[in-house]
Amino acid sequence: MSNKVYFAPARPEKWRYDDSMPGKLERLLRAAGLSHYFSPKEWVAVKTHFGSDGAHRVVRPVFLRKVVEGLRQTGAQPFVTDTVRLKGLDYLEVANRNGINHLSVGAPVVIADGLYGNDNIMVKAGEILGEIAVASLIYDVPGMVVCSHVKGHINAGYAGAIKNIAMGGVSASHRNCGWKCGRGAMHTIGTGDLIWDSEKCELCYQCAEVCPLNAIVFDEGDELAWDGNTCWRCGRCVRVCQAEAINLPGDDERFLRSLAEAARAVLSTFESKKVLYVNFLTEIQPECDCMPMADVPVIQDKGILVSDDIVAIEKASIDILRRSEPLPESAAAGENLDPGGDILFGLNKKNYMIQVEEAERLGLGTSDYELVAL
Predict the structure, then answer these.
(1) Both 211 and 333 in a single domain?
(2) I want to staple 129 with a disulfide (CB 3.0 to 4.6 A). Which of 125, 277, 279, 367 is the partner?
(3) Could you tell me the residue range of the domain that residue 25 belongs to?
(4) What is the C-alpha to C-alpha distance for residues 350 and 352, in angstroms, rounded to an integer?
């Protein structure tokens, strides 16, 4: 399937199961030929994002189940997984509330880096990150299907397969070197100290509420106290501060390039042709699925793409989105973006193609693809 990207559009043409989105996903997986990648009795990770309480626009369980069923037909043994984004047991409960559990997906649902999020292995990444803590389960498993909910992202601009494995295949923290060896190494630079401007602060307390580790508290005098030893440097507090009173030092280009480096580190733990990518261009909202809410979609559902080339599938997904029109009554409509313009760039003002171009430069794939519509 070299450089081919298989695509099925979201809209059905007939009133029959084969034209439904689950039916089309089955056809895409058959066209991709799962047996070419995965062997009988081989454990295969189905990597997705479990979402958050309030963030329900994740890859739907019905689609994850179709991937699981396709893998089982090859004789492989699949399981559905993600790394700790909240405390491990809490995150499994979030997954269950979002409908992702053993019964719904037809396979075990497990945390890839342990319930405490520090079960990981240091892997060489590149000139920016040096080494990064890859989740031990993803490090050890021989095969993986990456199921990505394509959407906007406040830091990355565009979030698809690269972001999914760069931040979702890496732990938030390492047992010895903490956040500096985890996702925080991408989010911030230097000592990563949180900066709080008390004069701008409106005391809405959203930063404290959104912190997955309770690293931010306000005392009786409404002074912010931050636990830098506990903090993962995930940046959620910065995102929710509408008064722009909180900041973590960072650099947009460095962040986007580091995504490609981290993705390469994760993929380096697999042999060639042992990772397949499924991008879901559905419920395309402007935010990451980590946030405690989900905005209405800014672009109409476009369909599903499958490829074994991470760069090709990302470029194909972006090309489709760039030809789209903003949905009315969404954040995109509120920005008065032109029909057919770059909606995700207009929303987030990030040069998100840097991550794709860097991934290609690092040898992860090619942006020269053939779109095969089914």
Answers:
(1) no
(2) 125
(3) 4-183+251-373
(4) 5
